[in-house]
Fold these 2 entries.
Entry 1:
Amino acid sequence: MIELGRKNKLEILRDTSVGLFLGDDEDNDVLLPNKYVPENYEIGQTIEVFCYLDYDERPVATTLEPYIMLGEFRLLQVAEINEFGAFMQWGLEKHLLVPFREQRDKMKEGQWYVVHCYLDHRSGRLVASNKLDKFLSNDTLDLREWDQVDLVVTRQTDLGWEVIVNEKHKGLVYFNEVFKTINIGDVIPGCIKTIRKDNKIDISLQPLGSRVLEPAANKIYEIIKAKGGFLRLHDKSNPEEIRDIMQMSKKTFKKGIGTLYKAKKIQLEEGGVRLIAE
């Protein structure tokens, strides 16, 4: 089955004057226009392409990399507005439509919005919406605390940053859990910190508990090496200075330093920490 809005691995069936026809194992085929045909290919070879509808509403394949695919949430820019809605740049020739009914507020040309790409079953077209909540639910969660998750940052609140978790759920990263610069639209990894009784999800941007020790120690070790073997930070350093330089909390920094010290990788000096020559 050839899926619109996703990447498909298809077989090259035949070469024509307009491009290559590609097919799946269910006898469906789709055109890869000449401008996307690779320089070297063979009939029978498998090629990965993205499939969507062209200007004439016909399925077509491309080797271009879209900024968003079916079921994803991503930050896109409005290319133009017309009587049908807002058209977003998504890396392909034909822009992605956000109908007026799917705009939380009236979109403006040139502005950036986090949108969700879905298949409109009435028209059969890929469209987008920035009414994000209708595509998210925390009613049923297949998550556990400590799970590593993928996040999309959607907006800033009084408490922290709202994020989309694994393209399905809503979560929150509290400001005191943020030790690096993040922005709306960022796609970043995270970790489930807490699942509350009402199924609200608290997110950490770094591994939790004892699991933070090894990654933190490795990060500190690499930074000390990059700085010539000496780091002008120690357990008495200002927490803000540690956060700015290391992008981690003072507590995490101290644990990482402790791990390196016990492993005899560093020695503690008055002005900082120094690598021990191996």
Entry 2:
Amino acid sequence: MTRVILLNKPHGVQSQFTGSEGIRTLRDYVDVPGVYPAGRLDADSEGLLLLTDDGALQARIADPRHKLPKTYLAQVEGEPTDEALGRLRTGVDLGDFKSRPAEARAIAEPDWLWPRDPPVRYRRHIPTTWIELILREGRNRQVRRMTAAVGFPTLRLIRTAIGPYRLDGLPPGRWRETPERPQ
């Protein structure tokens, strides 16, 4: 039977099981043999990471050709304008590629959000805003590059969903197994 594990990856953890001494990796949180991450999250990013023992499912989840929606919450520096959000919705030229159109909207800070360790830098005179972004691709540091390109750098990035899989109250560093498979 296929195993699918949902992990709330904490900030500062690499999305792999091996690493250098002193670097936190998935092995510090998940002690399940034979599972591997389906996609990645940068060490600076937090949230949902899927692990599975099914190579075909792993490829399907990770491959942008399948257009599985990935939902992110980004805390950005400043207050994004309608124009900036519009650019995120139509696709952003990032130099080496143009992003596909994303769903993007400003939201209130989530009331369920856990504190980050270390905390995001605080600047008294510069406000921050939360944006929900739904992408159907996932290139290296893409959300951070997109928000920076429209003038609002990402300070904190949390992935909350991949297709049908959701964090749904899973605390940082914890995992649960699920029987769900993407359509």
